[in-house]
């Protein structure tokens, strides 16, 4: 099995579908440029039959994006597939992603179709898409709540009809890592023609398990991950790309796969998205949050000064974060205070440390964060808050 993990970015489709994250055509183009530079393999640029603006955005990205596969989403019906085929036409490398719901609840309540009708519609959709594009992906929406034997039948039929990628969405974020791992293993064992297709994960984050479930899928043999920057997406979002990429990189021995992502561009890309959707990145967000490489407790700061790997499992520069930060606050100790003063150019004598720390703790108790100017003033004998 290949060790190349395909990163299928759906920030501009599933991500953009989340409340407050919609982007206009120019913003989508700007973000697509960033994603290309980041090194994603596939950009799902939108759902062309949803609106003229979405069609235009996918078309414009297909015209401009180089070195990436541009994909559009379509239901298994002629109008969606034709619109998608037309939108992606200018791309040097393109894909049509067709989907139909697979679970009993979706079949009965939404589609009002039997299992046989769903298979028939899926096969027709994949064939139509294949007539317009050599690269077709098929998704069984709500796969994790569908009967496994039905998924085997549906995916086998989709591959026979020409799908190159079969995607196993956890549409409502319901599965767990062990269950998803078993499902992917079963599909690898039982789907006919699976050796000619790539298995893909598409996990939502309703129970906070999207990244863990995606990684479990990789352990079971999935070689494409569908994800979004910052994990934006429907409801609680999709699997966060930066977390997946850094997990497989940091734990390379465990996962045995690699991506094409230029990791030092991750932080800049996350900030570009944040400014385009006008939503701040949560401070405690893994990898790209302001606190991801910030240390406040005295014990941790002491360790960090001795050796960064005591409390950091990744290097901030590998993600494009300017550097680790030792935040001076009420939990900081003498090691961090002395270290900061020495960075500010002061040679602190041992005899000065004790009285300085008494004044420092007094100030830190009243302030959330002690800034460099506060510390300098304290050291020079002036308490700025007196
Ligand atoms: O969550 C989902 O099932 C989807 C499909 C359209 C792939 O987004
Ligand atoms: Zn989705």
Automatic annotation (TrEMBL):
<keyword id="KW-0100">Branched-chain amino acid biosynthesis</keyword>
<comment type="subunit">
    <text>Homodimer.</text>
</comment>
<comment type="similarity">
    <text>Belongs to the alpha-IPM synthase/homocitrate synthase family. LeuA type 1 subfamily.</text>
</comment>
<dbReference type="GO" id="GO:0030145">
    <property type="term" value="F:manganese ion binding"/>
</dbReference>
<feature type="binding site">
    <location>
        <position position="14"/>
    </location>
    <ligand>
        <name>Mn(2+)</name>
    </ligand>
</feature>
<feature type="binding site">
    <location>
        <position position="238"/>
    </location>
    <ligand>
        <name>Mn(2+)</name>
    </ligand>
</feature>
<dbReference type="GO" id="GO:0005737">
    <property type="term" value="C:cytoplasm"/>
</dbReference>
<feature type="domain" description="Pyruvate carboxyltransferase">
    <location>
        <begin position="5"/>
        <end position="263"/>
    </location>
</feature>
<dbReference type="GO" id="GO:0009098">
    <property type="term" value="P:L-leucine biosynthetic process"/>
</dbReference>
<protein>
    <recommendedName>
        <fullName>2-isopropylmalate synthase</fullName>
        <ecNumber>2.3.3.13</ecNumber>
    </recommendedName>
</protein>
<dbReference type="GO" id="GO:0003985">
    <property type="term" value="F:acetyl-CoA C-acetyltransferase activity"/>
</dbReference>
<keyword id="KW-0479">Metal-binding</keyword>
<keyword id="KW-0963">Cytoplasm</keyword>
<feature type="binding site">
    <location>
        <position position="204"/>
    </location>
    <ligand>
        <name>Mn(2+)</name>
    </ligand>
</feature>
<keyword id="KW-0028">Amino-acid biosynthesis</keyword>
<keyword id="KW-0432">Leucine biosynthesis</keyword>
<feature type="binding site">
    <location>
        <position position="202"/>
    </location>
    <ligand>
        <name>Mn(2+)</name>
    </ligand>
</feature>
<dbReference type="GO" id="GO:0003852">
    <property type="term" value="F:2-isopropylmalate synthase activity"/>
</dbReference>
<keyword id="KW-0808">Transferase</keyword>
<comment type="function">
    <text>Catalyzes the condensation of the acetyl group of acetyl-CoA with 3-methyl-2-oxobutanoate (2-ketoisovalerate) to form 3-carboxy-3-hydroxy-4-methylpentanoate (2-isopropylmalate).</text>
</comment>
<keyword id="KW-0464">Manganese</keyword>
<comment type="pathway">
    <text>Amino-acid biosynthesis; L-leucine biosynthesis; L-leucine from 3-methyl-2-oxobutanoate: step 1/4.</text>
</comment>
